[in-house]
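Support reply, case 0932

Customer input (verbatim):
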Amino acid sequence: MHTAVSKDDVHSRIFTYDDLLGYTRDVKLGLTYNPKELDIVPKVWGRTLGDVVYEAENERGGHFYAHEYPDLLARDVKTMFGKGGGAYGLIAGKDGYGNSDRARL
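Our regenerated output:
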């Protein structure tokens, strides 16, 4: 699915929209929109990247919202991957709720 690109090519090559779709076409995507983001682009642009299964519009935060407001990131991840979320059950047999799925310390 992914095309190998050398480290040197990444810095000298101009990537096209088709190149981007090669990386995201089969990936479930979650998007968040933050009011203090570096660039605020139309939401419809994000929806063209692939299978968007979760979107949230935050009342606060910017480009580093995961660092600024980790509670928002935790909410987004739980909602996207939790029961009823668009990425729930993404890995067959692993829903994150069974005892066998819990981390062992």
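We compared this against your earlier run and they match. Two observations from our side: The beta strands are 28-33, 51-57. The two ends are 35 Å apart (CA to CA). Please reopen the case if you see a mismatch on your end.
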